[in-house]
Design a protein that fits this description.
478 residues, alpha+beta, 6-stranded antiparallel sheet, globular
Length: 478
């Protein structure tokens, strides 16, 4: 269950489209600066900053993105600065650059002149070590929140040509450069990321700092990609989590949902559909959507509403169930006249996870339709997958341990506001599927309403299911 969900209060301030905010989630974040490399800059997709912008807007959060540069790395995938979502422009500002290293941001080494030979000292006007051109106006642009994801190039690009990042002493060396040396429950405090955090706090002692894990990847080209290479990145992220606690900054595990648990040959490897097919390293739009959901949750905000009203499960028309073990197909039919926007909700778990070997084809099939459009979702032991042919992975997890409600909504959308029509999928209060295409049900006989169908012999437990007009993610913990 997400942090935002656990902290949800029934009598909170109402913002945006009727969203109950977490107790400690501010209605105004102030200036937010994103720091990082090409994953934050946006390489084969606009980066997680774009879907996160939409989360803020849907939750009625006031914020200003600040930074020393603007735009995305590849113009083909760029969100033009000023593009609006629900009437709020996205200025696409940040302090990230493709191929950037932590040592460059810290000012320890500058090899390429990225970001104009500038570093965080220059950006903030603190102990400048270079005379770069990129600076923030301390009176109007001082960050109140810093979100940083850095280290992929330090580990992969700088050490991948030495036999793989997991080979020999290389990861220990780069970890020392990034976060220093662990000394029991403390750290040495002399890593590049220490310099960045300390400089930010010197400029603004009240700043809120989020440190994001290095995202996992699929099988990166031109690298050995041995099983131990993925394991060592997981070990580094665990060390980063410990370091973050010591530095009193917030650690965000953005790998939730990205890692395929069924890949036992390479534990920790990412689902390929979440990463760019060309380099298998940079997140796709779907990967960025999942990363944004984790950052939003860490900040205390539930997922996007897409203009829908938040409704609790009690407001849904229930699907009659006989016991907790689901063994047969059942359906609820919706009045087609009122079914232009509606949601089906199912709380389920599938199989026993790795205990009996991962079943990646069998599970629970969920269809939702109104006679004109039908969406199909399949929940297996290891993933949530969209489409009649199960060809679009939305989320990876051990679904045998799932405790969150899955919601599928058919949304008419509003293209003028940037809310695209289609099917949307939430896991708990996280949006994991956006504007997904449905299908014409005429050719395959799908009946209107919510239909649950078990696939194969894997055990499926459904504790609740129902339908409602409109509706967004749960109003409180279920």
């Amino acid at each position: 269950m997400s942090k935002a969900m656990m902290k949800m209060l029934a009598a909170c301030s109402v913002l945006g489209a009727g969203v109950a905010m977490a107790e400690d989630a501010p209605a105004n974040l102030g200036n937010v600066m994103f720091v990082g490399d090409s994953i934050t800059h946006g390489y084969g997709a606009p980066s997680y900053r774009w879907p996160l912008h939409k989360v803020f807007v849907d939750n009625g959060v006031q914020f200003v993105a600040v930074g020393v540069t603007q735009g995305n790395q590849n113009p083909r995938f760029c969100v033009v600065p000023g593009t609006a979502y629900a009437g709020v422009p996205f200025n696409n500002r940040h302090s990230a650059m493709s191929s950037e290293r932590a040592y460059e941001i810290a000012g320890r080494i500058n090899k390429s002149g990225r970001l104009g030979n500038s570093n965080i000292h220059d950006w903030l006007g603190v102990d400048a070590t270079y005379s770069g051109d990129f600076k923030l106006d301390p009176a109007t642009q001082m960050p109140d929140v810093m979100v940083m994801m850095i280290g992929t190039n330090d580990t992969l690009s700088d050490y991948g040509n030495k036999g793989g990042i997991g080979a020999g002493q290389h990861m220990a060396e780069v970890q020392k450069n990034l976060i220093g040396t662990r000394k029991g429950k403390s750290w040495s405090g002399d890593g590049d990321m220490d310099v960045i955090v300390d400089t930010m706090r010197k400029a603004n002692p009240k700043v809120r700092i989020l440190i994001l894990a290095i995202p996992t990847w699929h099988d990166v080209r031109n690298n050995n990609n041995k099983a131990e290479d993925f394991a060592v990145v997981m070990d580094y992220n665990e060390a980063l989590k410990h370091w973050a606690a010591f530095k009193n900054v917030e650690f965000v595990d953005v790998n939730k949902g990205l890692i395929d648990p069924a890949r036992t040959d390479k534990p920790g490897v990412g689902e390929p559909q979440f990463f760019n097919a060309n380099d298998k390293l940079h997140p796709t739009v779907q990967g960025d959507l999942l990363i944004a959901a984790e950052v939003a949750d860490a900040l205390g905000y539930p997922g996007r509403t897409v203009g829908l009203e938040r409704k609790p499960s009690a407001a849904f028309t229930p699907l009659p169930l006989k016991g907790k073990v689901f063994k047969s197909t059942r359906a609820v039919k919706l009045p087609v006249a009122d079914a232009t926007a509606f949601t089906g909700a199912v709380k389920c778990s599938v199989g026993d996870g790795k205990k009996g070997g991962w079943q990646t084809e069998d599970g629970l099939r969920i269809t939702l339709g109104n006679g004109q459009q039908t969406g199909v979702l399949t929940v297996t032991e290891s993933a949530i997958i969209w489409g009649e042919k199960k060809d679009r992975v939305l989320y990876c997890s051990d679904m045998s341990a799932n405790e969150d409600e899955i919601r599928i909504a058919l949304v008419p959308g509003n293209t003028e506001e940037g809310r695209e029509p289609g099917f949307y999928v939430w896991l708990g209060d996280r949006l994991i599927g956006e504007a997904l295409p449905g299908m014409d049900p005429a050719c395959n006989g799908h009946v209107p309403g919510l239909v649950l169908s078990p696939i194969g012999k894997v055990a499926v437990k459904v504790s609740s299911a129902g339908v409602a007009d409109g509706a967004y993610a749960p109003a409180s913990a279920q």
